[in-house]
Write a structure and sequence with these properties.
The structure holds 2 protein chains of 2 kinds. Chain A is an all-alpha fold. Chain A contains 15 helices and no strands. Classes of the chains: A mainly alpha, B alpha/beta. Chain B: It is a peripheral membrane protein.
């Protein structure tokens, strides 16, 4: 028998992506740009040569982690909109630790900084989890509010504690604390590719394992699908909510920490909340919260943003076309029921034809 | 009663290799109530799915009012006057009764919904068929019986003259069932026809004219209800002799397993259980009879740690467990078969094996150091599927894809396999077929014979009287009397349930 659910689990995101690209192409055609040329330069911008690949993978790193963070909370039935703030706090914590404890040996410093980043994100998100569990406060509202508190707090702290007078950026972290290494730089023609990517891959595997192979992951999925039955089974729904939000925040904080140590190497006063927190939600949505799917979806989004830069280099087409493609993909994921309907219709038709054929065969026999 | 309104001729329906309906023919006459009897999975719903336009037959023809029809959607069936009342109601809780009835067929006046006309039409129909409904009430606030009347009204409003009822009494109290039977007669008196899917033989005897018995996708026979005994129909349905008797072993010594003393439970500000006391000893089944909504659910919730006890105490095996968390109570060897299997007893999107370990997944051997051992979880699933005769493709199948009876068996398997000292069972056979009922009753009685204590809550009087050693009658949150099931009839019990304090009802 054909497994319809499994097939549509893969087909829906693939079809959404294709449909997104088609919408992008149509928009380009309407405004007189050549979609084939532009998609060509997008692709080569993201993947041609070691440098481009390095940049794409570097861009993918925080996306994987913020997406995993969002996936963990949504598996438990909650929407952690606070990935952005948790990411920012993680970034801040990592830089703060490396600058304050710069006398520690490299590896110790890195581990310390990464743990601090994860914990900062986790505690921040845990606040929302606690409020949800004990007071029923909507985590959507609290995480959005916590985002702003994180944003203004980090700006304040960077300005007052980490920068020299009149400056907007902290000092760079010592190179022993950096996740970039000469080895990786040589490999990717001096791109910003760093070890954080491999950590993110490892974390994706761990999260997959966590969902499917641990008690806590099972509780998460149970509470997310049926709270009443979970309570009946003796699970603590309150505990599960807090754990889910805490783990979710850990992952977003980790994203910020790795980006700080690998990509930015310092922290600056910023004008707005980091976009990567929100992009992670889109990635998780496209991957339907599947950790391995998140890797593919993050690769796609990273390729779009890195490759998109090349579009305006090689033609007069504005880079914003990439945002149209991205937004369309998300839109098509949102209307996935339309695709599921089409797939079902297609499958039933095929089954019918098969049945007719086998019926004919029966008669002959 | 001579005109034929529906004729299904040589209908076959296949799903892949599986034949759900095999060369089925039946006719429905004007003004007739035709019962469709069969076990879960016998193919009743598939057959009716084709009549209501949800499915297309692989072979065969359907005639409505002597015209051959091909229906591609439920809309086509509705247009032909076929109304389906599903087992699980298709209503929007947040909408009013009126809005639910007209949904999809709203009368228009210059592009606006003409509520006045709709209300008039519905009231006219309600008078004609003696259907009491409050059209302004919100569906969320009305009883299950009333929701069903709304479903019937939906069909009437669309001018249906053939009504298909898919297990309409599964969720109703005895009183509501009586009401529904009256509605059935009112409908047929006006020249409508009814196909009544059920596996309750008593109801068939009560209202149906003829009965079509289906087993494994084939028609076994079509019988005249008046001239056929209930036992005969039951045997035709399951294909073997039904043994309705249960054997109660003699219990010599017994000790107190469950002691409930002066327990009060509150729900939404009012007292649902008032100062209630009861005990269950080892080797006995204590039945709690009562009409739905008299505090039974709140009492069980309190016993299982899902709701707080306001005053009083609960002792399990002699240990005070008042207001302990659910997991602690489970670990004190209390098994609980909840009333609502789909929303409470099971997590439908999870596999059978996962549901079978829903309460023990965190313990050895299913888990070690916080990591699950799927190999053992699945092995346990296979073992229990075999031991409890759960009909499924594999232990990895989603529990949601099983039939109601098999879903219930999953719960029974899990609770009994945990080897409890006390088993609490709330309506354990609601909406399952005769074969499964027999099986579940046997299993519950087996627990009693093994010197466990069983607390049985049921709205089915026959079930209570058949299984219990003692019956407590609950009304308005209190125990209003205790009876001996051997000397009490269902009628007498019914009177007590209605709140009549007949303490000397025992002869």
């Amino acid at each position: 028998m054909f497994n319809k659910t499994k097939l549509s689990a893969i087909a829906v995101p693939v079809m959404s992506v294709i449909a997104g690209f088609i919408v992008g192409a149509i928009v380009m055609l309407i405004f007189g740009y050549n979609p084939i040329v532009n998609y060509g330069s997008l692709f080569s911008g993201a993947f041609s040569g070691a440098y481009s690949i390095g940049e794409t993978l570097r861009d993918m790193t925080p996306l994987i982690l913020t997406a995993l963070g969002f996936a963990v909370s949504s598996k438990a039935g909650f929407f952690n909109i606070g990935g952005s703030g948790q990411y920012l706090l993680g970034w801040f914590a990592a830089i703060l630790v490396t600058l304050k404890f710069h006398t520690l040996p490299g590896l110790v410093l890195i581990i310390f900084a990464i743990l601090a980043a994860a914990l900062a994100g986790g505690l921040w998100s845990g606040i929302a989890g606690y409020l949800r569990a004990y007071f029923g406060t909507s985590e959507v509202i609290t995480t959005i509010m916590l985002n702003y508190i994180a944003f203004y707090f980090v700006n304040f702290a960077v300005k007052n504690w980490l920068t020299a007078k009149g400056e907007d950026s902290s000092a760079n972290i010592p190179s022993k604390a950096s996740l970039r290494t000469p080895f990786l730089e040589n490999l990717t023609q001096n791109s910003t590719f760093h070890w954080g990517f491999f950590i993110a891959l490892l974390v994706a595997v761990i999260v997959w394992f966590y969902f499917n192979k641990t008690n806590s992951g099972f509780e998460l999925r149970s509470v997310g699908t049926n709270e009443a039955a979970s309570r009946y089974a003796g699970m603590s729904v309150k505990k599960t909510i807090i754990v889910a939000m805490f783990v979710s925040g850990i992952l977003a904080g980790l994203a910020g920490g790795l980006d700080g140590l690998g990509n930015y190497q310092n922290i600056s006063v910023s004008n707005s909340l980091p976009q990567v927190g929100y992009d992670g939600m889109a990635v998780a949505l496209l991957a339907a919260n599947n950790p391995l799917g998140i890797l593919l979806a993050a690769l796609l989004f990273a390729a779009l943003s890195i490759g998109g830069l090349s579009i305006s280099v090689f033609s007069t087409t504005p880079t914003e076309i990439v945002s149209i493609v991205t937004a369309s993909i998300i839109f098509f994921v949102g209307i996935k029921y339309a695709f599921e309907y089409l797939i079902n219709k297609f499958l039933t038709k095929k089954e019918l034809i098969k049945k007719l054929n086998s019926a004919k065969g029966d008669k002959k026999a | 009663m001579t005109t034929t309104v529906v004729e299904m001729k040589n209908i076959t329906k296949k799903f892949g290799k599986f034949t759900a309906n095999d060369d089925i023919s039946l006719t429905l006459k004007k003004g007739e109530i035709l019962a469709l009897l069969g076990e879960n999975g016998a193919g009743k719903s598939t057959l009716m799915g084709m009549l209501s336009g949800l499915l297309e037959p692989t072979a065969g023809q359907i005639f409505i009012d002597n015209k051959k029809v091909i229906m591609n959607s439920p809309r086509d069936a509705k247009a032909l006057g076929i109304g389906m009342v599903h087992q699980h109601f298709m209503l929007i809780p947040a909408f009013s009764v009126l809005e639910n009835i007209i949904l999809g067929d709203e009368p228009n006046k210059k592009g606006r919904i003409d509520y006045k006309k709709a209300a008039q039409d519905i009231e006219r129909l309600a008078d004609k068929y003696h259907l009491q409904i409050d059209i302004n009430a919100k569906v969320a606030d009305i009883t299950v019986g009333m929701q069903q009347r709304v479903e019937i009204m939906k069909a009437l409003y669309r001018n249906a003259h053939v009504f298909i009822f898919d297990e309409p009494t599964a969720a109703l109290t005895p009183q509501e069932i009586g009401e529904l039977m009256k509605i059935f007669r009112a409908l047929t008196d006006e020249g409508n026809s009814i196909i009544f899917i059920t596996h309750k033989l008593k109801e068939i005897k009560d209202v149906a004219h003829r009965c079509v018995v289906i087993r494994a996708g084939k028609i076994i026979d079509t019988v005249d209800v008046d001239n056929t005994a209930e036992e005969t129909m039951a045997e035709m349905m399951v294909g073997r002799k039904i043994d309705n008797s249960i054997e109660k072993a003699e219990i010599t010594e017994s000790k107190l397993m469950l002691e409930v003393e002066n327990v009060s439970v509150e729900k939404a500000g009012h007292t649902a259980v008032k100062n209630l006391s009861l005990n269950v000893k080892s080797g006995e089944i204590v039945g709690i009879a009562g009409v739905d909504g008299n505090g039974q659910s709140e009492l069980i919730d309190a016993l299982t740690g899902l709701r707080k006890v306001k005053t009083g105490s609960v002792k399990i095996n002699g240990v005070d467990m008042t207001n302990s968390p659910t997991r602690k109570i489970t670990e004190a060897h209390v098994g609980y078969i909840p009333e609502d299997r789909q929303n409470v007893g099971l997590i439908l999107p999870l596999s059978i094996a996962e549901n079978l370990t829903l309460k023990s997944y965190y313990k050895k051997p299913f888990s070690k150091y916080g990591f699950l051992n799927h190999k053992i979880i699945n092995q346990n699933g296979r073992d229990l599927i075999k031991a409890f005769d759960i009909r499924s493709q594999s232990e990895k199948e989603k529990v949601g894809s099983l039939s109601g009876g098999n879903q219930q068996k999953v719960i029974v398997a899990r609770e009994i396999a945990s080897n409890p000292d006390i088993l609490i069972a709330a309506n354990p056979t609601r909406g399952v077929d005769v074969g499964a009922i027999e099986y579940i009753h046997e299993k519950i009685n087996e627990q009693r014979n093994q010197k466990k204590g069983v607390l049985l809550i049921s709205f089915e009087l026959d079930e209570i009287l058949k299984l219990s050693d003692r019956v407590l009658v609950m009304h308005a949150g209190e125990i209003v009397g205790e009876i001996d099931p051997k000397n009490t009839s269902a009628e007498e019990l019914g009177l007590m349930m209605a709140g009549k304090k007949v303490t000397n009802i025992q002869k």
